[in-house]
């Protein structure tokens, strides 16, 4: 199990540090885990003047799986777009062909009161957002800046999806729904965008291969509203890169905190990059305040998807449940008046609970 560790910036090194403790404990328990660390994002820029240094990409390519923290920080905000930390993430997703981004929003019962919604709306919430990750307006060309006919500067981007790209992500959506609650909601903006009209046509045509899955379509504005009105109506959501970016941040608040949500980004062969869905939180970096659970839960996804070790995934998830049940809370999930523990204490508690 060769795992590339890319801590990144801000709270990235701290939360990944706790995930590495979990890996070390699993190695001591006999799993053949090998890790190697490399810089990405702002750290990549500092080390090699590029957000995705060649050596980092090579390490990631040679590994079976990649664990990433987060990238970005105020120090890098003035760099040209091509050198900004976010480009490190976008490039590694593209270079590794990680087109399928799985973002589960699962509410742990202990955190019901931390949800932004009333407990009865979110009790038992378990939804999976499947976000296409290597296409759409994120990567579409042409893009850039130009002087328009009126002599004014304008910026422009291109939203585009080819049929094959829609098909392969829709397939992940149908297959995932088949193994879960058999409900798939495809989210688009087909009342306005040509890209979405094609998306809807392609997804609809595939439904006949999956008679056991109930497919429905929803416009993204309505989906954003339904997620806070009645989130439990959803089982699996499949959507494009931009809409998925936005909806998955929204969904994280249902689960109590963005600090709880892991993600998997998979290629066609289950090789994956695993990262929390939150960002680098520069405002709390280096203060032992960040919640490491999203990163630790990302490891569980890694064992489940890349290494086909659902048993190990289950042990990690059970350890996270156990520390929540013990009452441990980092600041983001602590209720007013509850004592918060630090990043390291939370990581140590998970390692202890792993046994
Ligand atoms: C995410 C992030 C990234 C994205 C940024 C950091 C480029 O918001 O993983 O959701 O937009 O995909
Ligand atoms: Mg995002």
* Secondary-structure element order, N to C: EHEHHEHEHEEEHEHEHEHEEHHH
Given this structure, which CATH class of the largest domain is correct?
Alpha Beta
CATH superfamily of the largest domain: Isopropylmalate Dehydrogenase
User: What count of helical segments does DSSP give?
Assistant: 12
CATH architecture of the largest domain: 3-Layer(aba) Sandwich
Low-confidence stretches: none
Distance between the termini: 21 Å
Q: Going across the biggest sheet, name each strand in turn.
A: 2-1-3-12-11-4-5-10-8-9
Q: How many domains is the backbone divided into?
A: 2
Attached small molecules:
3-isopropylmalic acid, magnesium ion
**Large-scale geometry:** globular
Q: How many E-type strands?
A: 12
Major sheet summary line: 10 strands, mixed
Q: Rg to the nearest angstrom?
A: 20 Å
Percent helix, as a range, is 40-55%
Note the quaternary state here.
single chain
